[in-house]
Design goal:
Largest interface: A-B, 82 and 72 residues
Distance between the termini of chain A: 62 Å
Distance between the termini of chain B: 60 Å
Strand content of chain A: 15-25%
Largest sheet of chain A: 6 strands, mixed
Structural class of chain B: mainly alpha
Oligomer: heterodimer
Shape of chain B: globular
Helix content of chain B: 40-55%
């Protein structure tokens, strides 16, 4: 019976889609769509456009995108998932650490302690309602994943094994190290993707794999869908939907030394910029303390959770000086800054004293082999180091982007108009692409995978609350998306004087030298100007491949455009923010500037006005034509979802 | 239409289970080891090779799929490998390479096979894998940072 249903569905798919080369995984595309997909010539006869109608479209098939797509399909929405990579090849697969949840399997635990740790970790820039939501949902989210078949590592008693991770404590920071990171050996990311993708195939999710999303289709401030390029045959596709979810990941590739795959190009954040909306807190870029010197490959924080230590050129375990209690398990920005200070003060390692060492050879080889099998190989291949004998040379490397598309705790994208948060109709965001903001100025390790599943699910739940499957789509301008196609065409035949690879490298080096771990006013300003010039030379770009099928040159140039938009907003936001907070550390403004000076008793202090202090979110927008960045600010949300259940954590000095 | 749809939703679970096989419903399991031999993995649809794909299109696709991987290590190794070998591969080798980089779902597995951390499964242990393993060893001690610029593809045409 099922086979006949599938066959019937296949007959309903219009002929235009049935080219031999195109394959959709379980595409029941057209099945619930009464009219089928249509080809429209409204934009350009040179680029035939295929129109699709769905209830929801998700851009990106990583952990957050898959969870959103699966949740929507489960709720009965006809969902499309548009992705430039095969789902199990999304960058989530790289995650080796784990997912934090206060399950209490290793010691007695409480999600409110996790809440406190996350608020503190965010340096009080995180929105406490979103953090409350995430940490309270965490145990249920992990158990849900386990029920979906995710094979977590177990203790001998059969409970989910939880390991220590940086920044996680018990009893609101007073009870010592907490063990709440749940993992699947060292391949939690892959297991998550495999589980979610496998589950989503039980429902009617239509996957459009190796489609590059170009832009959002916006009309009157409402999001009506996405326009994308099919790489396989060069056709253009407009996915019309009342609900669009962006889950496109981060933009690490704006920097030269970065642990991200070459796919992290900020596509969603750039799409939002071109749509005239703002991105939030882009200047907060997390530098992972331990990226292999030279290659950028990540050495997971789990190493330090299992006992690894950081050594400077003098053989000293220097973290004891910077974080007496947490030592090597202090949160990432504290560790990155400590390493950078050691290097700047001449205590680095190696012939040029420009990195430090991560030592693992004091740990039992059996423990290394069982709990961290991937580390030994990575160190050998990219650094030529045998971890059972020598330490690994490491350097702070860009690892995560706390900033992104601003959303509320329900996953809805927001705009800040006349001092109020206003929901952007039809647009949602989750994962690294979004800023809910749970990570604030600094993300704690193992909170990112949690962020993906909780907010991916939240987007699906919110859409299920505000919309119904099968709702009619409002009509769209027949020429919607025209500009995106014109841009595509322009890049495809670009014959200027600067090659894509050259411009990209210049941008990356500029960001690395002007907006990295330590930042200072004149250097940032110089960087803003240099980057502005580089942005202008985008119009003079040169591409080589004039084809439209599998054109890597074209795709990488489109990605470069996206990276540039993210880079400009990042460096301008950093230049404007005259304080140090979390991952944003300025040599010329070394302290946090809050509404009160929390280092002293509050009594007798005058509260600073909104304009005078910096405990606020940056909202950056750009005019893509001129490259001019405009900065605005919105307040941090301090109230939790339920003050009785979970008290707000008032700001304090952040020390470990 | 909606009645049919409701009926479809109700039967969907049982139908899909019939087609795709039972997925494990898990609860805490007592003593288990970490080697996971007794866990049934959720089945994913098997990878299928594309038919009737022109050779140049195949090369272009494999180039994209070599440069865009799940993690940095594979991005670096495969894009440099593709620069060296992709344009000279025979049809058979292209087919083997296609299978190698697209069939496994975990990019880390490919990485472990390339670095010989884990033995390559027999179905992937072929001449292309041998080339890849040798290439990974980096006997020439090349500095492999970033990705090769795509200009090399067009240098002959200038």
């Amino acid at each position: 019976m099922a086979a006949r249903c599938l066959a019937a569905a296949r007959d309903m798919i219009p002929a235009v889609s049935r080219t031999a080369a195109r394959r959709f995984h379980f595409a029941t595309y057209g099945k619930h769509n009464k009219n089928g997909a249509k080809v429209s010539n409204a934009i350009s006869t040179q680029y035939p456009v295929v129109d699709h109608e769905f209830d929801a479209v998700v851009v990106g098939a990583g952990g957050a995108g898959l969870r959103a797509a699966f949740g929507l399909s489960e709720a009965g929405f006809n969902t499309a998932c548009v992705t430039k990579l095969f789902p199990t090849r999304s960058h989530t697969v790289a995650a080796q650490g784990g997912i934090n949840a206060a399950l209490g399997n290793m010691e007695s635990d409480d999600w409110r302690w996790h809440f406190y740790d996350t608020v503190k970790g965010s340096d009080w820039l995180g929105d406490q309602d979103a953090i409350h939501y995430m940490t309270e949902q965490a145990p249920a989210a992990v158990i849900e994943l386990e029920n979906y078949g995710m094979p977590f590592s177990r203790t001998e008693a059969g409970k989910i094994y939880q390991r220590a991770f940086g920044g996680q404590s018990l009893q609101y920071g007073k009870g010592g190290q907490a063990h709440r990171c749940c993992c699947v050996a060292d391949r939690t990311g892959h297991s998550l993707l495999h589980t979610l993708y496998g589950r989503s195939l039980h429902y009617d999710t239509s996957y459009f794999v190796e489609y590059f999303a170009l832009d959002l289709l916006m009309e009157n401030g409402e999001c009506k869908g996405v326009i994308a390029l099919c790489m396989e045959d060069g056709s253009i596709h407009r996915f019309r939907a009342n609900n669009t979810v962006l889950a496109t990941g981060g933009y690490g590739r704006t920097y030269f030394s970065c642990t991200s795959a070459h796919t992290s190009t900020g596509d969603g954040c750039a799409m939002v910029t071109r749509a005239g909306l703002s991105n939030q807190d882009l200047e907060f870029v997390q530098f992972h303390p331990t990226g292999i010197y030279g290659a950028g490959c990540l050495i997971t924080e789990g190493c330090r959770g299992e006992g690894g230590i950081l050594i400077n050129g003098e053989g000293e375990r220097f973290m004891e000086r910077y974080a007496p209690v947490a030592k090597d398990l202090a949160s990432r920005d504290v560790v990155s800054r400590s390493m950078t200070i050691e290097i700047r003060e001449g205590r680095g390692c190696g012939p040029e004293k420009d990195h430090v060492y991560l030592q693992l050879h004091h740990l039992p080889p059996a423990q290394l082999a069982m709990r961290l099998p991937g580390i030994s190989e990575t160190a050998m291949i990219f650094a030529g180091v045998d971890v059972t004998k020598e330490p690994i040379p490491v350097l702070p490397t860009v690892h995560y982007n706390m900033g992104g598309v601003p959303t509320n705790y329900r996953g809805q994208a927001i705009n800040h108009v006349n001092g109020k948060d206003v929901v952007v109709p039809g647009l949602y965001a989750c994962g690294e692409a979004a800023s809910a903001s749970v990570h604030g100025a600094n993300r704690l390790g193992a909170n990112s995978l949690l962020d993906l599943v909780v907010f991916g699910r939240a987007c699906a739940l919110t859409i299920a609350e505000v919309a119904k499957p099968g709702e009619a789509l409002s009509p769209i301008d027949p020429n919607a998306g025209e500009e995106s196609v014109a841009n595509l065409d322009h890049l495809r035949f670009a014959d200027g004087s600067t090659r894509t690879s050259e411009l990209r490298l210049n941008m990356q080096k500029c960001m690395q030298s002007h907006a990295a771990v330590f930042r200072t006013g004149p250097v940032l300003k110089e960087g803003c100007e240099k980057l502005s010039e580089l942005y202008d030379s985008l119009s003079d770009i040169k591409t080589f491949d004039r084809g439209i099928v599998w054109n890597s040159d074209l795709i990488e140039t489109l990605e470069l455009q996206n990276l540039m938009l993210c880079a400009l907003q990042t460096i301008n936001g950093a230049e404007a923010r005259k304080e140090s907070r979390g991952a944003h550390a300025r040599e010329d403004f070394k302290v946090r500037i809050d509404e009160y000076d929390f280092a002293k008793p509050l009594q007798g202090q005058e509260k600073k006005t909104f304009d005078e202090h910096w405990r606020k979110h940056t909202l950056s927008s750009m005019d893509p034509k001129t490259g001019k960045v405009t900065l605005n600010y919105r307040p941090v949300i301090d109230t939790t979802l339920d003050a009785e259940d979970c008290a707000t954590v008032p700001p304090a000095i952040r020390s470990y | 239409m909606s009645i049919l749809r409701n009926a479809w939703c109700l039967t969907r679970e049982s139908v899909s289970r019939a087609i795709f096989g039972a997925y494990p419903l898990r609860s805490y399991r007592g003593d288990t080891s970490d080697d996971m031999t007794d866990i049934k993995q959720i089945p994913l649809p098997p990878w299928e090779e594309r038919t009737n794909e022109p050779l140049n299109t195949k090369r272009a696709r494999l180039l994209y799929e070599s440069r865009k991987r799940g993690m940095l290590e594979n991005c670096i190794l495969l894009s440099f490998f593709a620069k060296k070998y992709l344009n000279e591969m025979t049809e058979k080798q292209l087919s083997l390479y296609d299978k190698l980089i697209n069939q496994p779902t975990n990019d880390w597995d490919i990485y472990y096979w390339m670095t010989e951390t884990k033995p390559t499964p027999p179905e992937f242990d072929n001449e292309v894998m041998t080339l890849l393993k040798e290439f990974t060893k980096n006997r020439n001690m090349e500095h492999r940072a970033g990705q090769p610029a795509l200009d090399y593809l067009f240098e002959d045409k200038k």
